[in-house]
């Protein structure tokens, strides 16, 4: 099972649709359960949840697994019953994609534990957890460069990014972007492969802070670090990253 996490509006569903688009070919039977169905994908069986007729995520999943799909997409795991059916589907050979509402990737196992899912089921079924946010990208027509200040450089170094760049991109504003300095959005991501070390932490029911430390020791980049790299690459600004991901950075630093 692959889980994508993040708050409402962070692009989780769009990311899952992009993955299904890649996997959607004649050799794969794909079925989704969604609330609502946001995009129609040719060749994919998509089911709309309808609670009024008792067609919710868990009841739909029970019927779907009898149809022997290769790939399942569950729009969101909201309760223990849905989580356990999705996990059992993953353990019996299906590739399962779903989403959870957590701040970062390390919080996902704890969210499932809070629902009452047994830790051995989580450790046995989940292979990858992704956290994401959307940041605005700089307007290509008016973006400028400004010299990296000593404070900026210290901030980058505190988050493990040492650079010899002398300047970074800055928002200006023009008629084409409505004076905002930004046009379009890009994702920032955090990948947490469920390694042996992460599995052991899940089995011990360790808090999210411990999982973060294990992930960092294993060399996994944080959501904030990916955002900082995109700042250095000229896609967005430190101000925009702070607006979107400041809370997550403060949470990680404090833990």
What is the spatial order of strands in the main beta sheet?
3-2-4-5-1-6-9
User: Residue share in helices?
Assistant: 40-55%
Distance between the termini: 27 Å
Number of strands: 9
Low-confidence parts: none
Biggest sheet features: 7 strands, mixed
The overall average pLDDT, rounded, is 91
N to C succession of SSEs: EHEEHEHEHHEEHEEHHHH
Task: Categorize the overall geometry.
Answer: globular
Describe the structure.
The protein is an alpha/beta fold and 255 residues long. It has ten helices and nine strands. The protein has a seven-stranded mixed β-sheet, sandwiched between helices. Helix 3 links the parallel strand 4 and strand 5. Helix 2 runs parallel beside helix 3, helix 5 packs antiparallel against helix 7 and helix 7 packs antiparallel against helix 8. The protein is globular, with a radius of gyration of 20 Å.
Task: State the main characteristics.
10 helices; 7-stranded mixed β-sheet; single chain; two-stranded antiparallel ribbon; alpha/beta; globular
